[in-house]
Specification:
3-stranded antiparallel beta sheet, about 450 residues
Amino acid sequence: MKKFFQEIKADIKFKSAGPGQKLTESVGEKAPKEKPKQQALRQPRQGPTDEAQMAAAAALARLEQKQPKARGPTSQDSIRNQVRKELRAEATVSGNQEAPGTNTVPEPKEEGSAHLAVPGVYFTCPLTGAILRKDQRDARIREAILSHFSTDPVAASIMKIHTFNKDRDRVKLGVDTIAKYLDNIHLHPEEEKYRKIKLQNKVFQERINCLEGTHEFFEAIGFQKALLPVPDQEGPEEFYVLSEEALAQLQSLERHKEQLLHAEPVRATLARQCRVFRPSPLASQFDLPADFFNLTAEEIKREQRLRSEAVERLSVLRTKAMREREEQREMRKYTYTVLRVRFPDGCLLQGTFYARERVAALYGFVREALQNDWLPFELLASGGQKLSEDENLAFNECGLVPSALLTFSWDAAVLEDIKAAGAKPDTSILKPELLSAIEKLS
């Protein structure tokens, strides 16, 4: 501390001296233009006086009273530098030499490893029931929809409209316009003008022609293309004209319209990959594949923004509520989660879920695995926290991502009935077909 105040005093004296002066000279004296050849060695600095030492000791005592001994960085620049160093260290450990904050994803783990909790993220095609990998689901669903045209062209065209076009607002506008065309035909079947749709019409071009599947839909419900003359125009133009057979079945047109209005995009459903393991001390250890950590372009941009915000957050004080919100936001970056439920006999039931799914989905998954699915039960998270089936919380809001181990517990009334009947509460309660395929957790 003594040396610290000596350096401060020397720095102040140096600045007040001005250019071209020595520290040992007074302010008014001018320094010589040239240094003497036989310049004496620099004399050591004079130590502080007794009064200065007493003042320094008092200042040091005040600082120690006001500030804790162990302190972090005291300026925003030093905080930023510290965070950058930590991020560089993380990038070096993961084998990534890029600068912190760049678009990086973890290295994928070896697929098919016996130590992985799940081999990957898989989906079920709702049309064919086939199990699809994450990277092939869109292409396989497209193939399934296109192949459906041979059996039900109306349903296939509706699925194409809602699935192949990603802009939901544009889809809704086009579907509403088609419904208006069909309403006019249903309300005025005798009016010929409502049975014809001009393809070069501005509304048709802007709202309908730009959507995939709309032309297939018109043709599937009975419209046919035809060149018709247009008044005050030299050449004919192309129209969709409703056939007489379709006009005679107005109820079918109304039904097709309702199907079009209420249809949803065809999406592959997440495969639960239900597995049952024997009792194991490794129940809380999860080795997840790369599918659980690969980020989309939007997610990578969000991660970069969050890293930048983390630097700023370290320089300000945060309340407990602010910290809890930040922890929840950190959990939301995961898309999937693997959950295990430990039963009274020690067996483990495992399933894959979306991180944004509700707790009720886990209760339903467990109930389907029980021999007596009507008996009430409870699920406890780590620390004994009870997860209520009726509570509208997502897994990422409960901290159950990207993996978690929960405990199955009988409802208090059920447990009393089990004991009164002389049965053991730790007997196996899973379905026999699940126990027949039980695995060893490695």
